[in-house]
Amino acid sequence: MVGLVGVIITFLTIMLAGLFAGLVGSMTGLGGGTVLVPLLTLFFGVPIILATGASLISTIATSAGSASAFTRQKIANVKIGIGLEMATTTGAIIGSFTLYFIDRADLLWVIFILFGTVLLLSMVPTIHRSMSELPKDIPPDRTTKFFQLNGKYFDPRLKKEVEYSGVRWFQAEAVMFFAGFISGLLGIGSGALKVMGMDWAMNLPMKVTTTTSNFMIGITAATGSSIYWKLGYIQPFLASATAIGVVIGSFFGAKLLMKLTNKEIRWVFFVILSFLGWDMVFRGLSNSPIVYITIMSQTLYAILLSIVMIAIAYYWIGRSRKIAKVG
Amino acid sequence: MPKWDSDLVTSYILRSGVVVSIFFIIAGLALVVIRNGAAGYDLQQIASLNSTTVTSSMINLSDLFSGVAGFDGLYFIAFGLWVLIFTPVSVVAVSLVEFANQKNLKYVVMSLYVLSILLISIFVL
């Protein structure tokens, strides 16, 4: 009977971790997996391979949940999404097998460091995004017509129909291949990279970019998950707990984000995220043959670095906003 | 043929995929607890979080349907997780049909490519 209680408690705490990951993931726009993998590995001692497996399959559920709303409202551009999926799914296959070889070679500490680095770098475009909803005017190029990258959607806040035309399709495919690779390698949706591809390369409006990215994440994650399944990276019990938790968490995260009038509170979540990023880097370094750092110092360094980093980012963004207002 | 809105169909598939999958996962968890294990493993093995635990490669997918029919908890969970994997696959299939309806040859080819990558990852690799 004690065994049963223990199992139920384990399940519920992991589900809560998933809930928290879904909440922070959707509040910051990075997705549940990016928060879930560090939580499971750093605080639950779950082997990173099983953490990535649980994370990737949970990502499908969150993507499907939110994409359901956005395709109905016709904001997500399914056509552009499918075209770009050619690169992400291919990348996901290569990423998944790269993880397999890294696992085989006993180099999983590299995944910790990579994960932390990707997490910290993905915060840059997410924090920076804030400025403008609509893209600069860039004239359509050859790929716009050939790949039919035109579209329109109704923006409820601007109260008008927004028409757009994407450009530089091939550059976007290149970014997407990398996004897919990272998704398969680290077990995350890599939404930040997908957003970058559509924002920087294709110059699509932010709403279209984020919703289409959400739609695409599920397709990429399904590719990686089915390979993970055969490699034995998915632990059904763990994946069940995280899938349920993350779905609930991101549902409430999205609701909460709409209600928040004071967006400043998002900075708290960015501090948490950067802490997790740095902690992953230090854990990886500590597991490597390079240096050894005690767990206590890992945590301490991670806290200090993330506070400094976010304070600088906060100050910097605040200043550029003021300049933008004056100008 | 009546006109169908592929965006709406996609939206329904996505939502029902998640609902069906979560249903099977929860039912599976309940079955594992009630029957104190599943697929020949006991509860402790299934719930353990170290590397010696029951992982996906130990679940024989050719037994998936018979396992579900036999009310085996682990196969219920596995079925739920595979419903999740197949949800985006069916979305791509819907897009393929829609592009074919529009006679949009370029995108028929592109969605065929994506669909085959998915099916290869599921059935071949």
Descriptive notes:
The complex is a heterodimer of chains A (327) and B (125). With 327 residues, chain A is mainly alpha-helical. Chain A has one domain. Chain A is 77% helix and 4% strand. Chain A is built from twelve helices and two strands; from the N terminus they run H-H-H-H-H-H-E-E-H-H-H-H-H-H. Chain A has a two-stranded antiparallel sheet with strand order 1-2. In chain A, helix 2 (32-44) packs across helix 11, helix 3 (48-72) packs antiparallel against helix 9 (206-231) and helix 3 crosses helix 10 (236-259). Chain A starts with a helix and ends with a helix. Chain B is mainly α and 125 residues long. Chain B has one domain. Helix content of chain B is 71%, strand content 3%. Chain B is built from five helices and two strands. Chain B has helices at residues 6-34, 43-47, 64-69, 73-101, 105-124, and strands at residues 37-38, 41-42. At the A-B interface, helix 1, helix 3, helix 4, helix 9 and helix 10 of A face helix 1, helix 2, helix 4 and helix 5 of B.
Notable characteristics:
heterodimer, A: about 325 residues, mainly alpha, two-stranded antiparallel ribbon, 12 helices, globular, B: mainly alpha, 2 strands, elongated
| Beta-strand percent range of chain B | under 5%
Count of structural domains of chain A: 1
- Which descriptor suits the 3D outline of chain A? globular
Count the strands of chain A? 2
Q: Spatial order of the strands in the main sheet of chain B?
A: 1-2
Largest sheet of chain B: 2 strands, antiparallel
How would you sum up the global shape of chain B?
Answer: elongated
How do the helices and strands follow one another from N- to C-terminus of chain B?
HEEHHHH
C-alpha end-to-end distance of chain A? 68 Å
Mean pLDDT over all positions of chain A: 88
As an assembly, this protein is heterodimer
Beta-strand proportion of chain A: under 5%
Mean pLDDT of chain B: 90
Helix amount of chain B, in percent? Answer: over 70%
SSE class of chain B: mainly alpha
Report the total helices of chain B.
Answer: 5
Q: Which pair has the most extensive contact? A: A-B, 63 and 59 residues
Helix content of chain A: over 70%
